[in-house]
Design a protein that fits this description.
This protein has a single domain (3-131), classed as Ferritin, core subunit, four-helix bundle (Ferritin). The protein contains four helices and no strands. It is mostly helical. Residues 8-143 form the DUF4439 domain. It holds the Pfam family DUF4439.
């Protein structure tokens, strides 16, 4: 594994740590009709976090722990800011996974990163749609 690939994977893991934390905040303030989507997105980020940590450990890389807490980029105190935070989370994870795609040295890592980027882009489009953003998608997610 190259240094660039290792660094990108560690950055993606940190983005997943942050996403899992942020979805706890999102869950606290999301509209009741969003409970299912929040739970699904939280589970997806937990699974991606865990599989990324396992892959790094299997490659002999020390897996850093998550931070105890994270700061939201803006106050979240009702459903609209909660949905906006979800957009931020999915944008950040898409950006991190796109960097892995660009720096991957092996086909399996590139495939994993492509899958993670695609999943983040779909979740991002979901939240953009919920907020009424048009268009809900971008041509190259993670490239902002």
């Amino acid at each position: 594994m190259t240094d660039a690939e290792r660094t990108a994977l560690l950055d993606a893991l940190r983005a997943e740590y942050s996403a899992v934390y942020a979805y706890g905040v999102i869950a606290a303030y999301a509209s009741p009709e969003r409970v299912r989507v929040v739970a699904e997105h939280t589970a997806a980020h937990r699974a991606r976090r865990d599989s990324t940590a396992e892959a790094l450990a299997a490659a002999g890389i020390t897996v850093p722990p998550s931070d105890a807490a994270y700061t939201t980029p803006f106050p979240v105190d009702d459903p609209i800011p909660a949905a906006r935070l979800a957009v931020t989370v999915e944008t950040d994870t898409a950006t991190a996974w796109r960097a892995v795609v660009e720096r991957a040295d092996t086909a399996p890592t590139r495939r994993t990163a492509t899958d993670a980027l695609t999943e983040a882009a779909v979740r991002l489009a979901t939240w953009q749609s919920i907020l009424g953003t048009a268009p809900a998608t971008t041509p190259f997610p993670g490239g902002e």
